[in-house]
């Protein structure tokens, strides 16, 4: 079976060749506990993780077909902890895309997209595709989350705030995603 990297140029013949697998490395970054691991767990294993365990580095694999073309994903889950800021860049080489995740119920995680993640990605993999991914969208209407945010004079991240962030980063390089369900994850992957 032939293989090709997703970042390699496609010819019309290679796109149609069902014997050729496409391999794609996707690195997932974002603040701690913003939903990165759950997003990948849902995509790779089709279920939410039962318990939260802080990630240092974890790799998931997933494969699927799009129009008879076999796609093999190597999904790199990274720690958002500042303790790993010097180690995380080791995950970037040869990446085909970077998903920058934020937690819709924690507005400060969207701020980190501009303050931290944008610069890190531009430094270590400037030509890599980036997608902004809002995780935990179910908490947008969760009563206890809304009460907690209200106590801090905050609200869940709005679509307008995401749009402003996208414009501030580089509009042509980002696409928006609303849900972290498996179909939403497939949407993200297909947009790359």
Automatic annotation (TrEMBL):
The keyword DNA-binding does not apply. PROSITE patterns: RAB, RHO. It is found in: Endomembrane system. GO terms for cellular component: endomembrane system. This is Rnd3 protein. Its main location: membrane. The keyword Endoplasmic reticulum does not apply. Belongs to the small GTPase superfamily. Rho family. SUPFAM superfamilies: P-loop containing nucleoside triphosphate hydrolases. It comes from the Eukaryota. InterPro entries: P-loop_NTPase, Small_GTP-bd, Small_GTPase, Small_GTPase_Rho. GO terms for biological process: small GTPase-mediated signal transduction. Keywords: GTP-binding, Lipoprotein, Membrane, Methylation, Nucleotide-binding, Prenylation. One of its GO terms (molecular function) is GTPase activity. Gene3D superfamilies: P-loop containing nucleotide triphosphate hydrolases.
């Amino acid at each position: 079976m032939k293989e090709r990297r997703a970042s390699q140029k496609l010819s019309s013949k290679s796109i149609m060749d069902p014997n050729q697998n496409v391999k794609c490395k996707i690195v997932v970054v974002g603040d701690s506990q913003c939903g990165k691991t759950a997003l990948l767990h849902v995509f790779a294993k089709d279920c939410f993780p039962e318990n939260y365990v802080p990630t240092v580095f974890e790799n998931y694999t997933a494969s699927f077909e799009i129009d008879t073309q076999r796609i093999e994903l190597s999904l790199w889950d990274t720690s958002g902890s500042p303790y790993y800021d010097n180690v995380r860049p080791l995950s970037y080489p040869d990446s085909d895309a970077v998903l920058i995740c934020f937690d819709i119920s924690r507005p400060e995680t969207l701020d980190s997209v501009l303050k931290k993640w944008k610069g890190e990605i531009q430094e270590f993999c400037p030509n890599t595709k980036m997608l902004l991914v809002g995780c935990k969208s179910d908490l947008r209407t969760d009563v206890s989350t809304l009460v907690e945010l209200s106590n801090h004079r905050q609200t869940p991240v709005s679509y307008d705030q995401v749009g402003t962030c996208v414009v501030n980063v580089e509009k042509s390089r980002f696409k928006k995603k609303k849900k972290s369900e498996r179909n939403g994850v497939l949407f993200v992957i297909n947009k790359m």
